[in-house]
Amino acid sequence: MSIYNYQVKKPNGDILSMETYKDKVMLICNTASQCEFTYQYEDLQKLYERQLKDGFTVLSFPCDQFGNQNPEDGVQTAAQCKLQFGVSYPVFDKINVNGDNTHPLFNYLKHEIDAPEIEKNTFQQKMLFENIEKYYPEFLIGNNIRWNFTKFLVDRKGKVVARFEPDASMIDIQDAIQALL
After folding, report:
1. What does the record give as the active site (predicted)?
2. Is the pTM of this model over 0.85?
């Protein structure tokens, strides 16, 4: 299988093939509208604007599996992202990223690259780990998505080349993107 074999749904219900993004560098992210990492919408928008002309895109997939932090439907989430954070990159319909109803694209992504060990060096990292350990310990096992704003970097040939946890440095992410462009 290839990332280009998957289909995704827009908030309006239209189905889109991932082949639409062939030959682009993609940063695919599960997001949430009411998460402590929501500020990253703006960071992702800046990356998108800075690299769009070079064949880069951000793809956002709202998810409500972590603390009910995205209770809105896909249409409401996309509108909120645009209004509140100035998001112009694609925001898709709400999905699940873990469990029996995992969206096939995210099932593929999380099995293409191993989940890194969660570091506990900073206060934010410790809080993230403690929340996951307390509320979703099963997500610490294997390659599960552990929280909102987990990101997968995909190269122009559709290969998943990196996985970034929610607390990853945007500078490190930008450097990884730049290396592929």
Report:
1. 35
2. yes
